[in-house]
User: Fold this.
Amino acid sequence: AQKVTQAQTEISVVEKEDVTLDCVYETRDTTYYLFWYKQPPSGELVFLIRRNSFDEQNEISGRYSWNFQKSTSSFNFTITASQVVDSAVYFCALSEDVDSSYKLIFGSGTRLLVRP
Amino acid sequence: DTAVSQTPKYLVTQMGNDKSIKCEQNLGHDTMYWYKQDSKKFLKIMFSYNNKELIINETVPNRFSPKSPDKAHLNLHINSLELGDSAVYFCASSQDATSTRTTDTQYFGPGTRLTVL
Assistant:
């Protein structure tokens, strides 16, 4: 069955520290997509990244970087030089094909607290 | 220029009532979704519609009935509300996920916090 595990329930760091959020997934599909979403205290879900299973190149966007390792079924997210505004719950998600559509299977989320 | 909007943002109601949540997207997407986030922050899909046609119905009680009058709108009607229905409900949309068989990004609305007393 499709599954996403975010083992870290909560992480607390001091501003400017680097932090890595772990995501491990299980899937029976040969082609799939992985996503990260951010949910700040205001509650909305903000899309961060989408990665195709065939593209194992790491991605960097400003202070954010993602490490996709198909061999270990992991898609980890690193924030460099964390800031207080990074405080949020971060969700990793996996696409699952359903008939002619797809749905997102979410992990349980990691709450990141960045202290000044 | 809101992409996916939901109304209302907060909904407080009594057990047994019937209520609706509205969702609209102006992204020109063909597929829309409803997700439920419970008190522990778990997010789970409920329904998806593609161009007004129901595609996914994830064993949701039939007290929940989605309605899509056109591809830009997907409303959620809930009958006989129960305490366990208290949650945050998110609407989302994506570009056509059916005919092209691609997995496009789902963009979420701001959520509707439903509290059943």
Remarks:
- Chain B has a mean pLDDT of 91.
